[in-house]
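User: Here's a chain of 115 residues. Predict its fold as tokens.
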Amino acid sequence: MHRHHEPPYAGGEPASPESTGRGSERRIDDRPDVATSPAEGPDDPEVAALFALVAERLKQAHDRVHALNVSADAKTALTRQLLIVTETAKRDLPGAARRLSRFVQDLDEGRPPVD
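Assistant: Prediction complete.
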């Protein structure tokens, strides 16, 4: 029988680990969660500043891709590359920043960024 569960924030409060049934479970891949990693926690001002910088640069890169005079397929491919940078930022923020810098440099030099 299928049970319906409300989304974690449906009532305005985050779901507790007890209510989700995931109290002490670990990730499948045994990587630490970013939120629980001491070196990358939200309290680290350097990490927070890098997140903000990458987020702003991603927004600018998306705007530039949107403004390009290229085919819809080319824009889709470039947008996918930016989405990969976004996903990379979730687990490797410095790597995502480097990847984004190469992407923007290629745009600046008139070369289509290739992944």
